[in-house]
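Run log, item B.
One chain of 104 residues. Sequence copied directly from the ordering sheet:
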Amino acid sequence: MADARKPRASVIPFTRPDIVDRIFDYIVEQIPEIAGQHPDVKRAVRNEFAMQFSYVRRRSIEENQGLAAEVARLFNGRSATEVARILHISRATVYRLLKQPGSR
């Protein structure tokens, strides 16, 4: 009698993409002439920032300040939902930006 069990698929453990490799790959994609010139720099970056947890913002501080000013300008007499729709951001972001000092 033949074994009717299906062969088990090999399980590949999930690993998070390495941020240093992703950043360097992006830079090389944008500036191809530096390809191959970065192994020592990549190692130095790893050594410098090892064991640190970071948050990478979507917008720079300057962009965020400009967006906050725009939210404050548009919010006058409008609903947060309408402002969010106009600026393509969430309602929560509208309220978060309005809470920032100097935004109103």
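Observations after the first pass:
- Helices lie at 19-30, 39-49, 61-75, 80-87, 91-99.
- Residues 61-75 form the longest helix (15 residues).
Flagged for discussion on Thursday.
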